[in-house]
Amino acid sequence: MNEKVSQSDPRSERRFIFTIILALTLFGILMIYESSSIYAFRITADHAYFLKRQFIFFLLGLGLFFLFLLPDIESLAKYNKEFLILTAFFLIVVLFTGRSAGGAKRWFYFGNFSFQPSEMLKISFLLYCAEYFRRKGNLIRNFKLGLLPLGFVLGLICFLLILEPDLGGVIFWIIWVFLSLFFIRAKKRHLFLIISLGLAASFFLIIFEPYRFRRISAYLNPFADSQGAGFQLVQSQIAYGTGGIWGVGLGEGKQKLFFLPAAHTDFIFSIIAEELGLFGSLGVLFAFFLLFKKMVNIAKGANDEFKRNILWGIIFIFFLEVIINIGVSCGLFPTKGLPLPFVSYGGSSLVVHYILLGLFFNASREDQRVMCNV
């Protein structure tokens, strides 16, 4: 007699996740073209400049996705410290050899292509923490033996990010560590200490940097300086208001016509809201909801502690990026240069996200054979 399977098939879940990711990426490439074609023609005389580049990054990311399906996940755990040290090295080198853009040194440039080394933290720091939590076990609840060493590493990373400067990146990783420690049931007073120190450090970093203070002021009341610090938020709100329920139509948006800065990167969701309206925006949100639902289903079934830490760590990275990006475009959070995963333009981001997806599929396999079904 045939019995119904009570649990979902992990392979089926992975295929569904891969399909959603591909759909989001291709939709993102379309919206990148819609939001950047005029700007691209102005600076390069090629309407499809950003579309072509994003498609190249997509192919590269897809290749690396399949590459990261191959290694035994435990072999990556053995070199977690080396990966993190290498990332820290690049974060130091970029301060001296990186090209300044927007008042920050965050990118290496290789001809017409650039790479942001801080994106590597999503791989190296993830692997380090996943192995650290497994190695420490219950000692993670001990402040001196468990929390303090991790706090030192996190502090070093935050220090290097501040030098770029990238306060948003600092806040991102503090929240990510908080979520990770909450998940493994660290002591509540330790979690409170992390948040308190993070808030205190952020407060002083904002107070002593005028441009950061202006950004916070613009967040609280963007219309008070609608032509200055609040310009992006005001233009983003106009995009939402113009789009309404049904949107103005694909390709018919006006905010991309040099009104909304970073329309194809950090504020692409605003263009989606303008051109596709409320229902189009909800469609994108629903796609991410299904993605997270399937990823959580897989993470819940993981038995190995290191793999489980990898799975949940990747979920937290994607979740924070979605919440922060959309929250910024809606005016819920202060402006932070963070792309919408798989949708916004950005080579470093897209490639790293596909590597993370490869790690997620690798860590969720039932066995560690060389080939696995996607």
Would you give an account of this structure?
The protein has one domain (10-363). The protein has 13 helices and three strands. The protein is globular, with a radius of gyration of 21 Å. By secondary structure, it is mainly alpha-helical. Helix 1 runs antiparallel to helix 11 and helix 10 crosses helix 11. The protein has a three-stranded antiparallel beta sheet, covered by helices on one side.
Keywords:
mainly alpha, 3-stranded antiparallel beta sheet, 13 helices, 3 strands, 67% helix
Mean pLDDT: 88
Strand content: under 5%
Q: What is the 3D shape?
A: globular
The radius of gyration over CA amounts to 21 Å
The helical percent reads 55-70%
Count up the domains: 1
Number of strands: 3
Termini separation (Å)? 30 Å
Q: What is this entry, summarized?
A:
With 374 residues, the protein is mainly alpha-helical.
Chain-wise SSE layout:
Layout: H1 10-44, H2 49-67, H3 73-78, H4 80-97, E1 99-101, E2 104-110, E3 113-115, H5 121-136, H6 143-163, H7 167-183, H8 188-207, H9 210-220, H10 231-243, H11 268-300, H12 305-330, H13 347-363
Antiparallel strand pairs: 1-2, 2-3
